[in-house]
Amino acid sequence: MTDSTDLLDIDSLLSTEELALRDRVRTFVDTEIKPHIARWYDTAYFPLEIVPQMAGLGLLGMHLEGYGCPGRSAVEYGLAALELEAGDSGLRTFVSVQGSLAMSAIHKHGSEEQKNEWLPRMAAGTAIGCFGLTEPTAGSDPGNMLTYARRDGDDWVINGSKRWIGLASVAQVAVIWAMTDDGVRGFVVPTDTPGFKATPIVQKLSMRASIQCDVELTDVRLPGSAMLPKAKGLRGPFECLNEARYGIIWGAMGAARDSYEAALGYARGRLQFDKPLAGYQLTQEKLVNMALEINKGTLLALQIGRLKDAGRLQKHQISVGKLNNCREAIAICREARTILGGNGITLDYSPLRHANNLESVRTYEGTDEVHLLILGQHITGIPAFR
Q: What domains sit in the chain, N to C, each tagged with a CATH number?
């Protein structure tokens, strides 16, 4: 974090290697994303041209070992997510869908053949993946998915629909979760398979510099070897979702930090009633409250990252981070916009763009309500989902 944000010398808790990686990603965001993001967001354009650079920085499948993957720590991945989302949630989401969802599914649950076929290409950015779990009528309750895979001799035939599937229209491979006679199973589906159709969702008010799609699967025929052999039941996709949720814990603080810095810079330079906005008590209160929550949220993310690296992270702790940091980040971005006044509704400044994006980030990989209920069950021992 910059000096104006890091009130607690959080940088001193990071190793030399962690700081170096953080700084490399920050430089990439400052030079390759921030100068263009207003145009990309305005025109709803996802910049595929920067994917090779992301791969070159080791951002794809960053936390995975072997098969050409970078094998970095959870904290290093978190720091990268924070810096990417300081650029835009859509660009951090690309790294999350590619690495934490699609690649993680194959890495955790795939056969050696599946791993060797897809992971090296995905780590190099020459193949893009997507993760098909959510359906038009099954978001927070994926156990009621309608997509179905039936056996036909040695093959599988899949029919169904998925919605809000990131990257599906530009992906070469999809991990599709479907109900079978043996419960929920995952399948590795090359997107050029007949019957696979991905249609981008347009007219979005959020995540405009990224791609989300409707996916239709019509008699998609796959060989028996397409099934992920180690994933049975909802535990398979949920393990991948927890990887994505972990990245969000860090990423949300990146959006918050960038919004705070935009508001602080504006307040220092904007004169009202003959002195800078930053010189007024009400403005300082807003800035202080923002900085406090960014420091607390970053410390929370770091603690969760250290627990993950130590192999001691528990599922409810991911919900603590996702719920808290998304909730606080969106409040920070909205408050930052108030300091910018009317100018804050333009794409000349980042806070409202970040706030709009966080409406999606707050919803996907588990809504506030889902994480509240996960934590409620942990605290009371009583599930209250139904």
A: 10-124 (1.10.540.10), 129-232 (2.40.110.10), 236-380 (1.20.140.10)
